[in-house]
Amino acid sequence: MNHIISPLDLSVEELDKLLDLANDIERHPEKYAHACEGKRLASLFYEPSTRTRLSFEAAMMNLGGKVLGFSDQDSSSATKGESVADTIRVVSCYADIAAIRHPKEGAALVASMASQIPVINAGDGGHQHPTQTLTDLLTIRSMKGRLDNITIGLCGDLRFGRTVHSLIEALVRYDNVHFILISPDELRVPSYIRDGVLQKENVSYKEVVRLEEALPDLDLLYMTRVQRERFFNENDYVRMKDFYILDAEKMKLAGPDMLVLHPLPRVNEISVEVDNDPRAAYFKQARYGVYVRMALILTLLEIA
Ligand code: NCD
């Protein structure tokens, strides 16, 4: 059974094929409009989501398939004490593929082990978010033309931001990628990423606190929000939440081709005045999320 729990579940070659397919879907959506007729996606969301859930659902509908599921754990049997493993075992009888988001790290892996159908991790706590990474890679490759030879700044909550962890794991596999990790001391990347990925793979990276210092050198700036729901106390969140605010003034320090990415939702970390800057790519990025999820569903169902 094919599952996507971590971004590393796809080899670089498989990933290339998937991104090619996503670009083809973008150019010729009509070719794929009936590809999943008769198939069902279960969308199991135990945590809030706008983009990920709706883009999965839109992706399945664009392929001619159907969608069932829940968007709130309070409306599922989780409130009665059902385990994720039991839920997925049952959902396997109703659907052909499942996307699952859960507040606990490892939940998607547990689900995949009990499942009869492909499981896609749509975010497990502060751990990983591989389909956001596919979205990010498609955006970078489509807009920059490459995934190698880049300097990327990751800024904000690098500790709890699962999109950051997944993106780093995926990008270290390409040549000549330099990472500038921009965060307050308390929100630096966890050691399983620093020691277990960046140092282990001998990748060039540097950790800085000031965004202004990093901006002139970047090809890409990946902004993230401070992950309020993962903080142990509200005071820490309040202290950290406006640590970085990217505004028009700071954008003057960046090069003319630097792209600004953000997985969204944005809170205050990018001022709305940046939205009109041609380098702001975050809303385009959200659009790429549908194409890449269409490609992923086709690939896991072995239709493409
Ligand atoms: C991200 C997530 O859920 O981790 N959102 C998303 O899926 N686009 C980022 C976030 O919530 O900050």
Task: Walk me through the structure.
β5 (150-155), α6 (162-171) and β6 (177-182) form a beta-alpha-beta unit. With 304 residues, the protein is α/β, with parallel strands linked by helices. It is 37% helix and 15% strand. It is globular, with a radius of gyration of 19 Å. It has helices at 12-27, 51-62, 84-91, 107-114, 130-144, 162-171, 191-199, 211-214, 234-240, 248-251, 282-300, and strands spanning 40-45, 66-70, 97-102, 119-124, 150-155, 177-182, 204-208, 220-223, 259-261. α1 (12-27) packs across α5, α2 (51-62) crosses α11 (282-300) and α3 packs across α4. The strands form two sheets. The chain has a five-stranded parallel beta sheet with strand order 7-6-5-8-9. The model has no long low-confidence stretch (mean pLDDT 96). The longest helix is centred in the last third of the chain and has 19 residues, at 282-300.
- What is the percentage of strand-forming residues? 15-25%
H and E string: HEHEHEHEHEHEHEHEHHEH
Mean pLDDT: 96
Enumerate how many helices there are, as a single number. Answer: 11
Report the sheet with the most strands, covering strand number, pairing sense and barrel closure: 5 strands, parallel
Bound molecules: N-carbamoyl-L-aspartate
Secondary-structure content class: alpha/beta
Spatial strand order of the main sheet = 7-6-5-8-9
**Helicity, as a percent range:** 25-40%
Unreliably modeled segments: none
Total beta-strand segments: 9
Using only CA atoms, what is the Rg? 19 Å
